[in-house]
Specification:
30% strand
């Protein structure tokens, strides 16, 4: 499926690790490890266009003009609780990144998001923002999270997700067409309970063994 403003990271290592994560017999400890590894690989793609400047340094052999990140560092905003699984790998790539958290849960009856926590850097409007959530299913929680950070002034926004459903992508593109999505796969559809099919189940439960 080709969608505007959507990048499917189809690197063989990403796809291999994703298959292992989909397997219902994969234990929580391995699931968490694989999620962190995939987040590293996705991170290389989502951060590919960070702006660079140059500084003068001295190598053991000579002086040179060398590239260095320009401006304020990125903000990673984790949509709790499962977003923290992707956050681990991304902060490994950019240890100096600022971190925000948005606590949302999906009402099982209405499938609408309910916010219970919100904390982001005060200067989020001055930084590129990457939201992280393993599943883009209905899109309700993610669009709500984007709306909240935009209310704080955030404008340069991207989303990293492990799996996406066509319904979630369409919802996001209707409500926030400026947000670029990076995902490892776009699956077939949502079932009647709002779960991605074939998917991998509930990412939070798989991570923490809480099912």
């Amino acid at each position: 499926m080709s969608k505007p403003n959507v990048t499917v990271v189809d690197h063989p290592l990403v796809q291999h690790k994703l298959t292992l994560m989909r397997d219902k017999n994969t234990p929580s400890a391995i699931f968490r490890k694989l999620l962190r590894e995939i987040s590293l690989l996705l991170g290389y793609e989502v951060l590919r266009d960070l702006p660079l400047s140059t500084i003068t340094i001295e190598t053991p052999l000579s002086e040179m003009q060398a590239p260095i990140l320009l401006g304020k560092k990125v903000v990673f905003v984790s949509i709790l609780r499962a977003g923290n699984g992707l956050l681990d790998g991304l902060t490994e790539l950019v240890p100096s990144a600022r971190i925000g958290h948005i606590g949302l849960y999906r009402d099982p009856q209405t499938l609408q998001p309910v916010e219970y926590y919100f904390k982001v850097p005060a200067d989020i409007s001055e930084r590129p923002v990457v939201l992280v959530d393993p599943m883009l299913a209905t899109g309700n929680s993610i669009t709500a999270a984007i709306r909240r950070v935009k209310a704080e002034g955030a404008r340069d926004l991207k989303l990293v997700t492990l799996l996406a459903a066509p319904e979630g992508i369409e919802h996001l593109q209707r409500t926030h067409p400026d947000v670029h999505v990076f995902t490892a796969a776009i699956d077939s559809h949502l079932n009647s309970h709002g779960y991605i099919v074939p998917g991998l189940g509930d990412a939070g439960d798989r991570m923490f063994g809480t099912k």
